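Thread: quick sanity check before group meeting

JM: Hey all, I'm pulling together slides for Thursday and realized we never actually wrote out the predicted structure for the chain we discussed last week. Dropping the sequence here so it's in one place. If anyone has concerns about the input, flag it before I start.
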Amino acid sequence: MVMIMVNIADAKAKLSEYLEAVAEGETVVICRHNRPVAELRAIEAQRTQPRDLSPLFPGETFMTDAFFEPMSPAELQEWEGGELFPARVAEKTTPYGTPSRARAKRKRGK
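JM (edit): ok, ran it. Output follows.
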């Protein structure tokens, strides 16, 4: 295996050339001030099967089709641990930070 050592400026300028060399089996070591900091090499194998997401439960399916179905209101309530539809109180807002009429009256003492 051939190893090529290049500084960052050379790697930036000739990246496509170094990628071709890597595809042919060479390894490119990228250096900063002549000290190795990274290695550019070919990927060993492409994944043909999806990754197993259930390593803790061998032989069991991690996600079923029900995982992709919407939750019922009762399930949402249990998940969020609160009321199903909590009461909301909205304060009167005014644009651009101007005081509301009630606040202006309080300031004037009326």
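AS: nice. The mean pLDDT is 78. The chain has four helices and three strands.
JM: adding both to the slides.
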